[in-house]
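Troubleshooting log. The previous structure file for this entry was overwritten by mistake, so regenerating from the original sequence record. Sequence copied from the archived sheet and checked twice against the printout by T.R.
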Amino acid sequence: MLELFHYEPTANSAKPMICLKEKGLDFVSHYIDLHAFEQHGPEYVKINPNGQVPALRHDGRIITESTVINEYLEDVFPQIPLRPADPYERAQMRIWSKFVDEYYCPALSLIGWHHLIEGIVKDLGAEKFEAYLARIPLHEQREKWRLAATKSFPKEQLDEAVRKLRFSMKRHEERLQGSPWLAGSTFSLADVNTYSMTAAMPFFFSEFVNEKDTPRTLEWLQAMQARPGVQAAMAMAKKPMRPPAG
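Regenerated output below.
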């Protein structure tokens, strides 16, 4: 049995949600409300000791890290392949996914934390907030929550994150030159692993994600939004989602 522990179909949670839907796999959905700090609760920390979503449980065994989860699903359920058959394109899929995980996503995450966390914690009160912080397993995550709660990330760090996002979108656009998908001619995990990061970029960063500067990226977003697997994953949202880009 497949069980997915996830938040909304955004950011890292969306990656395995889309993968599972694209593969047509049945799974049990366990919604973890990040706004209620359920990811740091004792029951969930038993599943993922890092207190982060998503996590996959397959026949009692746990797999964490969204990109790794998708590779695992591809290994175990290859009937509907999401890895290119061509070895070069398969390598490109992994190279791009590594870039997303190590460069693009952290920059986007920092900006998201800066703008969103204050609203989540503002009504908690200092004592309750400290109690929630004490449950966070990773020291780095606790410090990130502290900074985000008071919008205390240094301006230089935020500016650098925006610079990285601008570069990421330039690289994203270049990837689509001459091919419809991010790893080449075949829809793959490169696209699955990127969609939730790029979907809202035209809304938040229209100064460099727009029809003039990134036309292929906007076309790619429309192609992604037309896929039944993506639509099915987005339909799992419990909270209102932004309108599609493009």
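The longest strand covers residues 2-6. Archived copy saved in two places this time.
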